[in-house]
Amino acid sequence: MVSHPVRSVRRALAAPPPDEPDAFEEMTLQEHLEELRDRILRTCAAVGLAFVAALFLARPMLVRIKDQANATGGFDIQKPTDPIGLWVKVALYIAIGLALPVIVWQLIGFLSPGLTRREKRILFSSLPFVSLLFVAGAAYGFFVAAPKALQFLSNFMPELYEWSPEGPEVLSFFLTLMIGLGLVFQMPVVMFVLASLNLVSPKRMRAWRKYAVMVLLVVAAVITPSTDPVNMALVAIPLLALYEFGIVVSALFARPTPAAPPA
Fold it and tell me: Does 39 fall in a domain?
C-alpha cells in the first residue's frame, strides 16, 4: 500500500529512538509501481487545475513581458499560430510554477523510500526552503535580471538596429534567466545538506571560496544571455552572496552525522 504523505513526513521528521538503526524503508516492486502511478496522477491533476487558472493570468503576464522587453510595437511573429501558441505556452509555464510545490512533494515522496531515516529528516526539513529559494531566484530573474538585460540590449546602437524582438525568443530569454536563477538559488540548501551528511564541512567550504568564486562567475556568464559585464554582475553578485550565506547556514544549523563506532 502507498503510505499516507502526511504521516510519512511526520515519521521522517520525528526523532528516532537512540537504539533504532538508521535503515531504509523496504518496498516491493509492485508497491513502487503503484506509488509511481498515484504520484504521476496527482502531479497531472495539480498541473491541470493550475492550468485553468493560468489561462487567465497568461495575458497580463505577456503584457508585462512585452513592456519589460521594450517591444513598444508588440512582438514580431513568424508563424500564424504564434499568438495563441505563446499564450498557451505562457499559461503552461505559469501552471507548472503554481503546481511546483506539489510536483516537488510528489518527487521527493517517491524517492524517499530509498533514503535512511536521517536523510529523510534532512531532506524534508529543507524542502520549504527549496521552494522559497526557487521562487526568489525566478522572481529576481523576472523583475531584475531580464528587464535590465533587455533594457541594455534594446538601446545598443539604436542608429543601426530596429528593435523589434520576436515573441518566442523573448519568452525563451526570460525563461533561461528565471529557471537558471531558480536552480542556482538552491546553493545554500545544497551546502546545508552536504554539511549535514558529513560530505563537505563549512571549514572546507571557506577554504574552497576562491575556487567557488571562479565557478560562480562561469555559471553567471552561462546564465546571462547578454555578454556585457553589468548584466553579468547582476547575476554573479547574488550567487556570491548566496555562497557566503550557505557557509553561515551550514556552520550554524547543520548537524553532522555522528561517526559510526568501530565494529
Answer: yes
